[in-house]
Amino acid sequence: MEIIKIENLTKDYGNEKGIFDVSFTVKKGEVFGFLGPNGAGKTTTIRNIMGFIKADSGKCSINGLDCFNNSSEVQKNIGYIPGEIAFMTGMTGIEFIKFMADYRGLKDLARAYELIKLFNLDIKGKIKKMSKGMKQKLGIVVALMHNPQILILDEPTSGLDPLMQNTFIELIKEEKKKGKTILMSSHMFEEIEKTCTIVSIIKDGRIVAIEDIENLKKTKNRKYTVSLGNLKEVQKFIKEELDIFKVYDNRITVIINNNMNKFVGILNKYDIADIEEEHQSLEDIFMEYYGGEEDD
Asked: What CATH number has the domain bearing residue 184?
């Protein structure tokens, strides 16, 4: 069953800014990753989904309701984390939580207190004195405390430290198990990889790929930098049947695809001073996935 449906959505701000002919669907119980660099069009698409702006053309619906014309009805069933969260800064954290609970007609704050504890959120301090990370935690609590069946999350871990990022990822996994329908935008591949089942890549306002996450993961290359004891060993090593990416002094960077066993076998022939894995950047994955070609 399709919960979120986007059909040929266009919002043109001029100068090639905006989104163009964007189409995708998110099915019930699916965690859909919306992946792209900053400025690619993720937030514009999400603001259309939330009914905050009206598209120039195309359709956008949730549960069959038009997102713009029926925005108030649509938003009742959504937990939303915006890319940039705006608060009533004169309130304390708990005052804002209670304000939003009253707005939603939420009487039971048990889930809110569970999330407060999970993210170690200080709810007594004034929002205007909170760090960006603390404000992000507050946004997460408010978005999820009413147990919505649909989550729209725009860069939800922005400002969180690595520990809290992992906590959020585990939370999304739990929400996934409950059958929630989740759309989550990010510019971090690892975050999407750990949580999503389907991923859409957007570049310059246009969808360039929609893939099952397992298929996309297969496009990732692994890079290892091997440090050898001397230059003689280096000269010998670079003659091995490996994809050599870079050589610098006694350090050799190789690209490994599905030949890890072969790589390990070669390593066993040498006296290795050090070896480290280089994590692929999002830009590297994009280049490998669609060949670095410019969109029409």
From this structure: 3.40.50.300
CA distance 29 to 122: 32
Domain count, the chain: 2
Both 196 and 115 in a single domain?
yes
Verify that 137 and 270 share a domain, yes or no.
Answer: no
Q: How many helices (H) and strands (E) does the chain have?
A: 11, 14
pLDDT recorded at residue 12: 96
| Whether residues 207 and 268 fall in one domain | no
At residue 286, the pLDDT reads 59
Tokens of 26: 């998110």
Look at residue 286 and tell me if it is in a domain: no
pLDDT at 220: 67
Same domain, yes or no: 127 and 248: no
CA–CA dist 128, 126 (Å, integer): 5
Give Cβ neighbours of residue 262 (< 8 Å, ≥ 6 apart): 241
Task: State which residues of the chain have pLDDT below 70.
Answer: 216-220, 279-296
Q: Left, alpha or beta for 98 (phi > 0: left; psi -120 to 50: alpha)?
A: alpha
Q: How far apart are CA 136 and CA 130, in angstroms?
A: 10
The C-alpha atoms of residue 213 and residue 197 are separated, in whole angstroms, by 5
Confidence at residue 217, expressed as pLDDT on a 0 to 100 scale: 66
Question: What pLDDT is attached to residue 226?
Answer: 94
Cut 0.85: pTM above it: no
Residues 6+ apart with CB under 8 A from 166: none
In b/e form, how buried is each residue of 41-70, taking b as 16+ CB within 10 angstroms?
bbbbbbbbbbbeeebeebebbbbeeebbee
Domain interval for residue 255:
222-279
Give the pLDDT of residue 287: 61
Residue 84 lies in a domain: yes
Amino acid at 181: T
